[in-house]
Amino acid sequence: MTAPTAGGASRATPPPPPAEDTSTGQLISQLTEQVSRLVRDEARLAQAEMTQKAKRLGVGAGLFGGAGLFGFLGLCVLVATAVLALDVVLPAWLAALIVAVVLFAVAGVLALIGKKDVQQGTPPVPTEAIASTKADIATVKENARR
Description:
Blueprint (H helix, E strand, L loop, with lengths): L23 H64 L4 H30 L5 H19 L1
């Protein structure tokens, strides 16, 4: 059994000759080889890191989806509970109608608020940053004329 190398290289490279015995061409060749090896190793490390992060992101997104589903189911049960509670004092059809009207009213209010926010967010252009940049350019032009 062979002992693993400390550097993790897949192939053995001969040790470089002492610096005082090496020519400039050899030094440049070694530099090129070491830089390319460093870039390949960094690319492999980045790829492994991104793969690991993507897996974690996928698992996290799946868990959030599951949490959203169970939250929705809990809300459905809560709505059914409200209908059953109103059924104690009102006919069942009237209890269901009242709960439905309240839910539609909440949906309408949320839709209006969402519409307002979407209108404020469109067009998706950084208008304030553009205006600030234009003001900066105008200031620089004005100061350059003086």
